[in-house]
Model the fold of this input.
Amino acid sequence: MSHGYKIAAGVVAPVLLAALGFLLTYAPAAETSEVFRRMMWGLVISAAVVAVAAAIYGLAYLGTSRQRAEAQAASDAGQSGYTPDRLDMRPVKPSKFWYNMALISIAVLFVSSAAGTGMTLSALLEMPARVWDYSVQMVGGVAQIPDEEARGDWANAFDAMLESVAIAWIGTIVGALFSLPCGILAARNMTPLAIYIPMRFILSVIRAVPEIVFAVAIFIPLLGVGPAQMGGAMAGAFALGISSIGTLSKLISEAIEGVDPGPLEASRASGATHAQMIRWAVLPQVMPDIIAIWLYRFEVNIRASAILGALGAGGIGRLISPPNGLFGQRPYDWEAIGITLFVIIAITILVDQISGFVRHRVIHGKIVRQKRRRKRKNGDASGPEGTKSAAIPV
Amino acid sequence: MTAVAERTSAEAGPARVTRPEPPTPPLVNYLGLVVVAVAAFAFFWWTRDDTSVLYLPLGVTTLWAPQWPLIGFLVMLAVLALCWFTRTGVMAAFGALTVVIFSYWAGSNIHFIDRIVEVPGRLTAGNTREQLIGYFNPDWSYLLFSNVAGTSRPIWGEWLITLCMAVVATIIGCFIGLLLAMLASPVSSFSKTSSQTVKAINSVVRSIPDVGWALLFAAFIGGTAYGLGALAAVLALMMFNIGIVAKLLGESIDAVDPGPLEAADAAGANLLQRDRVAVLPAVMPSFVSYSLYVFELNIRASAALGVVGVAGIGGELSRQIRRMSQGYENVGAILWALVIVVLLVDLLSMWVRRKLL
Done:
C-alpha cells in the first residue's frame, strides 16, 4: 500500500467510526444508559480528532507533492551530485502502519471508555489537601503512644490480619493438595492424551472463574458468612484454595514438562512403574520449583483474601470494609485506619520477605546472594545460578 | 547352557550387592526439632479454645491432654518419625514440621474442624439448598432488562462502566508501571539509591490490597457519588496495576541481555538513550503480555470493587446479596455473567497475544 492510500484510509476510517458513534447516540440503548451515551460521544470526539489530524497530515503531504516529484526526478537524473548505488542500500525500514494504527485505536478506546466512566476529574483538585490532612492524622495514629483505644485498634488490626494470613495459608494448602495431582495429570509428558485434554479444559475453566464467584455461590452458603466463628473465614479459605488450583496446576504442569528427560528414560529402562517414575525421576527435579510456586501463591492469596472479606468472608477485608468496618463509620476514624494500614503493610511485607527467602533457599540452596555476585565478578562461573529457570520470579 | 549361565552357577550365588546408604541425619538436630514440636504443643495447649480432653490410660495411671493440641502433637511427631526413617535432611524435616505447625495454627484460627463437620447438616437443612438452587437457576431477564434499584440505570450499563474502568485503569496504570519499573531496576535506573527507593515504595504500594485502595480513594475524594465512585475505582485499580507491573517488569528488566546495554554504553549513549534503545525493545514483549494479564485481573477486580461502594457491578451484587432469599436468582445471573465476561476477555487476550507475540 502506498503512502497516499494509507493516509486516505487513515482519514476515512475515523470519519466512518465517528459517524457510527454519532448514529449510535440516537440508539435506544443510549436512551436508557447514560454510560453508553457518554461512551459513544467519547468515541465521536476522539475519532473526529484523529480524522482531523490525519486530514491535516494528508493536506501537507499533498502540498509537497510537486517538490517531492522534483527531488525524485533530480535524484534519478543524477543531478544532486551523488547517486546512491547498490553498496549504499540499507534494508528497507519495516512499515509501522499497523503498529501506529493499533496505538491510535487504543487511544480512541481509552478516550471513549474514560468518557464512559463519567469520572468527575475536578474532584482531583481538592484531593491533595485532603490527602495531606488525613495522612497527618494516620501517621499521628501510628506514632502516638497507644492509649486504651489505640491499643484496641492495634489488637483488632493484628487479629484480622493474622486471620487473613491463616485464610491464605489454608487456601494455599487446599490448592497445593489438589494442584500436585492435577499438575501431573495436565503435563503432556506424564499422561496420555485422553486424560491430558479434559484435564487442561477443566483447569482453564477453573482459571476463568473469579474467586468471588466461588466464594459467594458455593462456599458462603456451605460454610457460613461473617466472622471466623460463623465460618466466613473458612469460606474465604476454600474459595481461594479452589480458585488457586487452576493457576497452580498450570505452572506445575509447565515445570514438569520442562524436566530433563534423562532420569525418566533411566527409570523406565530399569523397569520402574509409572508411579515409581514420578516419585524417583520427576519429583526430585521439580519439587523446588513446585514449592516456590506454592509459596508465591501464598503471597498472592494474602492480598486476594481482602476482597473476599468485603463480601462477608473473614479477614482484613471484613475489618476495613463498610457497612460495619472502619471505612463504614462517619466521621472516619483516621487514627484507627492508619494503624490498620500500618499493620497490613508490615505483615504483608514481612510475609513476602520470609517467603522470598525460603523460595530463594529452596531453589538455589544455601548460597547468599552477595556471595554469588562476588563469585561471578571474579570470573568463577561455576556457580549453580543459571542452571534452573523457575516458572515464577524467584 | 551358555557361558554366562555357567559362570554364575560356578560362583556360589551372586555376591551380595552393597549399595551406599544415604547418611543418617544427626540425631541431635532431630532432638532439637522434637523440642520445637513440644514448644508448639505447649503453645497450642495454652491458646486452645475448646476444652475437650483426651485420656491416655497407661495402666498405672491415666494421663490427660487437651484433645486437638494432642492430636496435632502426635501428627508432628509422626511427621518427624517419617522424616527420620526416610533419612530426610534436617532442614527439610524442619520445613515439614513448620508446615504442620502453621497449618494447625491457621486451622484453629479459622475454626476448620467445627465448620467442616457442619457442612452435611447445612446441605440437608436450612436455606443453603435454596441458595444453591437459586444460584444455578439465574434470572437472565433481570440481568438484561432491569434497572438498578431506585435509579434509571440499567444493569447492563453497570457492566459497561465496569469494563470502561478496567480499560482506563489498565492503560494509565501500565504506562506508569513501565516508568516505575525502569526506575526500580538497577539496570536502567539513575543510581543504586533511586532503584532501592522506588523498590521500597513499590512494595508498600503492592502490600495494600485493592479494596483498601478503593476505600482510601473514596475517602480522599470525599464520597462515593456516581462520578466520584468511578474516579475512586479507577485510581484504586491504577495503584493495583502499578504495583504488579512495576514488580514483574522490574524483574524482567533485571534479567535483560547485557549485550545491547554495553553496546549502547560504548556508543556513548546517556541513560535515557540507553533505556530507549537497549532496555525498552528487550522488555516490550513481556510488557505487552503483562498488560494483558493485568487487564484480566482488572476485570475481576473492578467487578468486585463495587462491593465496597465505588462504581461497578459489584455494588449491585452486594445489594442483591443483602436481599437474601428474594435475590438468589439475581445474584446467580450476575455471577454467571461475570464468569462469561471473564472468559470472553480471556479469549480476547489470548487472541491478541497470539497475534502480537
Observations:
- The longest helix of chain A spans residues 148-185.
- Residues 3-73+96-117 of chain A form one domain.
- Chain A touches chain B through 76 residues (CB under 8 Å).
